[in-house]
Protein 1
Amino acid sequence: MDFNPNSSFLYLVAVAVILFILAQSVFFLIRAYRRGKEIGMDVKKLRKTITSSAIFTVAPAVSILLGVLTLSKFLGLPLPWIRLSVIGAITYELPAATSTASALGIPISETITDPTVYSAITWVMTLGILPSTILVPILLKRIQGGLISIKNKDSKWGELLISAMFMGMISAFMGMVFANIRNGLPGWIPIFVMFFSAALMAVCGLLIKVLKVKWLQDYALPICMLGAMAFAVIITPVIS
Amino acid sequence: MDSRIYEEKTHHYGKIWTWTAVLVFVLVPVSVCIFYNAWPPFMSVFKGLLGVAPIFWTVGFIEVITFTPMLGTGSSYLAFVTGNLTNLKVPCAINAMEINDVKSGTEEGEIVSTIAVATSSIVTTLIITAGTLLLGTLTPFLNSPVLKPAFDNILPALFGALGVVYISKNLKLAVTPMLFMIILFVSVPSLAGSVGILVPVGAVISILMARLLYKKNMI
């Protein structure tokens, strides 16, 4: 059978996966929203959480879409569409495709025409990322049990532990921003962008706390992100 | 409903959805193999996996240990199916809890975090879907060299704003892991590609520092 990585069949498979993902998300959204109302949480706050999370998501989601675009040149559209809508991320999918293609001696610069190569890549992409999904139902209760027992013994330390874990994540990503500073001034662009974003957030903080601009609280993060991304567009041609 | 029963039911539904998701994920390559009658040789899949599995299985394990305590029950089951944790779901959940002044580990935190991750998953899926369907129209825009620096700098833009909030609140806790990571990445820039593995390293350093400061009543 002739193989086309953009065939109707593959689009149908993609639509089925996307519908499943949407169904799961809607299920958890409705369930949490109802529970929030049931325990007396402010409905306005719950709705604002939905709005601010949706706005925050736009810029990173467009960046994920760029990943679909990158992979589509080699794999067609349906498979990257599936992979980047589920647990995969471009940082994983590209190495997975490259690793399989090189094992089969196929260049990744051309669109795949061999269904066996395509199915091999699909298997590697799926199996390589599956453990993190599988481990959640296996480990989650145990991890939570451990945390609860720590909190029961010492609640302040329990809270500090979570803050410390989050600080670990932030420090790794903020440290990564400094990776290219030895490349001269262009290597400093991500640092300037990071500091600009931080400064914007400090201004937002002042507006919220001192001038009581309450609505800003829900949208400060996406505003700072988009502002800093716009700043990157302005400074990059000047510095590079 | 008692909060313990709600929590138990969340685990129950979470497990059903996750195992079904695993089945759906596996059915993708199975359906490709059956429809095109193209079962790949075992060795080609094995060799392909060898290039990525050791690192990504390790990262997957680490992510589960690190992120589930921050996310809570419902959002963990959802986020580990819909993906993009570090660049999207975890910051989104943490930001939502911060705005609502609720803590992870509480029922209010659980609800806010789940709503944030679910909304984020829906919006991401819809944007990717719309983008995929309109790719012909969007490609010149997305590939525009003018906009490239914006997308190249999405992580500094995100972690700058998020970082300043948390660092200002936990300054004593932040200094050591931040300094360690900056020195590490400046010394070995190639580690930027393995940042996922360094998240737990940062977490361990941060936890040890927190314990030390806590024992000395400094935080």
Protein 2
Amino acid sequence: MKLHLTRRYSFAAAHRLHSPQLSDVENRRVYGKCDNPFGHGHNYALEVTVSGPVDPATGMIANLAQLDAFVHREVIEVFDHKNLNEEIPAFRAAVPTTENLCREIFSRLRPFPSARLERVRIEETGLNSFEYAGEDLGS
Amino acid sequence: MIYLTRKIEFSASHYYHNPAWSEEENRRVFGKCANLNSHGHNYVLEVTVGGTPDPVTGMVLDLKELKEILEREIMERMDHRHLNREVPELKGKVPTTENLAATIWDLLQPKITRGRLHRIRLYETPDLFVDCYGDGR
């Protein structure tokens, strides 16, 4: 039997989808209204899934208070009520699509010491969501 | 393979306590969940069965049958019950979402004879859930 524990968080942030590798016309064509130079924002929902053996003393894969503190420090405090393009160094080069946001958040949460990070899932709106489980590097 | 999911809701009370530890240690590890007067949740359980639809009925398994299994094995045991005091399968275990999900898996797995129990997802709150898969996942 394999157990996965998932915790859900939320944060609100602004962004603009615009690639410096594309012309203004192409940016407009590819990203549509998401290319608005003034930016726009979302209420993101973040699901963090971890796995590992259940400690017989606590009945837990990971202490939730510890997981919450880690996710708050590494992600929520960094991203909540921020402008992703301006304030997150990774998005100076990469376009802050939810795909890239998944990768960035996964790499920030990967070092969680008490359990294995299985997956992050982000809802950009209630109508679209993205999941990332890391790259399979083989054995 | 087709996966079919049925959802049920039950309400139950519990507390977290390890008798091998002092009250201070219990309080430090489990926080407000260590309150021995108990608290409760509305649990939501999603049960997913995988299988090939029967060519005659077009069903992986009869939903009525699954409903009855869930009623008998889960609702009667756990709905409006105290998990620490009234559910023998959890005796000696801290009734965390992890242990409750594993217990539910062990109760349901042998009862699902048509199709194969693929996953259970147990929500303790909308912001916390545990998925349980079999080894052959």
